[in-house]
From TrEMBL:
This is Uncharacterized protein. It comes from Curtobacterium oceanosedimentum. It comes from the Bacteria.
Length: 110
């Protein structure tokens, strides 16, 4: 799409969008919860700068089933990519520390 005479290209429109650390943390927590299969309230997410890129530190449980190490490695790659896509930030690394296993309950025992 080209700009007409006397108009500015879309990229030249003044202004900026800022995403707070709190919003980035909430975004990363939601993405991690979805990918790890764990409740967001059981996950801790820390943000750091890593050579000019965002670094994520995720601590919490993972859903039961299969090879947990492979699942966590795949989750780290997916979380890094998804947070980067959603936030528009470059995510340099994602570190996941697993603290337990989340199992689905079939129902309450009374």
């Amino acid at each position: 799409m080209s700009a007409g005479p006397g108009s500015l290209p879309v990229s030249a429109v003044p202004g900026r969008v800022e995403i707070t650390a709190r919003a980035l943390t909430a975004l990363a927590r939601a993405v991690a919860a979805e990918r790890l299969g764990a409740p967001a309230k059981r996950l801790r997410v820390g943000l750091e700068d890593h050579d000019g890129a965002l670094a994520l530190e995720v601590t919490g449980p993972i859903a039961a089933g299969g090879d947990v190490v492979s699942a966590a490695t795949t989750a780290a790659d997916t979380i890094r990519s998804r947070v980067g896509d959603l936030s528009g930030r470059r995510v340099g690394r994602t570190h996941i520390e697993l603290t337990g296993i989340v199992r689905e309950h079939e129902g309450r025992v009374r």
